[in-house]
Design brief:
Layout lengths: L1 H14 L5 H17 L2 H20 L5 H17 L10 H13 L2 H4 L1 H19 L1
Helix pairs in contact: 1-2, 2-3, 3-4, 3-5, 4-7
Length: about 130
């Protein structure tokens, strides 16, 4: 399954580029497949792919709160499982870009409850990183 996911990812990158939403979606799914292999190398690849997927989500024109929250939860879980809290520093720029994007579009006002839930998730990531 990982081989097929990787082939799909490579095709997305060649066809669309690394920063496109469909490529980010593919990164998320490849990360899930890598995670199931449960080797040191596959866990590291899964972490990198998931941070990449988060970066794509946070830098696209219209961020989905639920997608950003889901990806942050996955990044957090992967780093907890690997006992790698310092690796969470790799998602800081993506988080900042995502929050800035949401604030610029006034999502913090229009969807206040969902935005607050996202901030809670961001706080969890920061707390684990600083532990």
């Amino acid at each position: 399954a990982v081989r097929l996911h990787r082939q799909s990812y490579d095709l997305y990158v060649v066809t669309l580029g690394k920063g496109k939403p469909l490529t980010g979606w593919c990164m998320e799914h490849l990360a899930g497949a890598c995670r199931r292999l449960d080797t040191q190398a596959s866990r590291q690849e899964a972490k990198n792919l998931m941070i990449g997927a988060l970066r794509v989500e946070c830098t696209k024109d219209i961020i989905k709160l639920s997608a950003m929250d889901r990806l942050l939860a996955s990044v957090l879980e992967l780093h907890r499982d690997a006992d790698d809290p310092q690796g969470l520093a790799g998602c800081q720029d993506a988080i900042n870009a995502g929050l800035e994007n949401l604030h610029r579009r006034h999502v913090d006002e229009v969807e206040a409850a969902s935005y607050a839930a996202l901030l809670r998730r961001v706080a969890q990531v920061l707390l684990v990183h600083d532990a």
